[in-house]
Amino acid sequence: MFGFATFDRRVFVGNTFALWLWFAGSIPSGAQTQVVVDVPLTAGVAANAPETFTVQQGDQVVLRVTSDIALELHLHGYDIPADVRPNEVTEMRFTARFTGRFPLAAHVDGNDRNVGYVEVHPK
Ligand SMILES: [Cu+2]
Fold first, then answer.
1. Ligand 1 centre from 102 Cα, in Å?
2. Out of 2, 4, 9, 18, which residue is the most buried by the measure of CB atoms under 10 Å away?
3. Taking ligand 1, which is a single-atom ion, which protein residues have CB atoms under 5 Å away?
4. Does domain 32-121 have CATH number 2.60.40.420?
5. Which of 76, 75, 112 minimizes the C-alpha distance to 90?
């Protein structure tokens, strides 16, 4: 394609996303849903700890984690770690392929604290 080198990637990504939305809206089932969940932590503890975050199998999950202290968040079972820095939003993204109840833990000073659970319900 001519002019590809000068192609603005942001425009491309934006258009692709708009197209995806259009397609997703036109497909009644089988399309992936993005689920954004806020996970605010204070001293490594969730507000309503242990909190249960419920999603559906196949969902694209985005955990938006904020914390007042630095810690490592760990989604057990899926084995996804995330370095969380104070006063920044850290996004943990995954596709909910496996069903079940998975502990979300904060590693603070060598301790494994339960923050809550991600529950993936079968479709
Ligand atoms: Cu852990």
1. 11
2. 18
3. 74, 105
4. yes
5. 75
In whole angstroms, give the CA distance from residue 82 to residue 91. 8
Residue 19 tokens read as 């197209």
β-strand pairing of 34-42 with 60-67: parallel
Q: What is the pLDDT of residues 57-92, one digit of tens each?
A: 999 999 999 999 999 999 999 999 999 999 899 999
Measured CA to CA, the distance from residue 7 to residue 52 in angstroms comes to 43
- Across 105-110, average pLDDT: 89
Phi (first) and psi of residue 31, to 5 degrees: -80, 150
What is the 45 CA–ligand 1 centroid distance (Å)? 14
Q: Give tens-digit pLDDT for 55-64.
A: 999 999 999 9
User: What is residue 19's three-state secondary structure?
Assistant: helix
Q: Where are the domains of the chain?
A: 32-121
The DSSP H or E segment spanning 45 is strand 45-46
> Ramachandran region of residue 100, left (φ > 0), alpha (ψ -120 to 50) or beta?
left
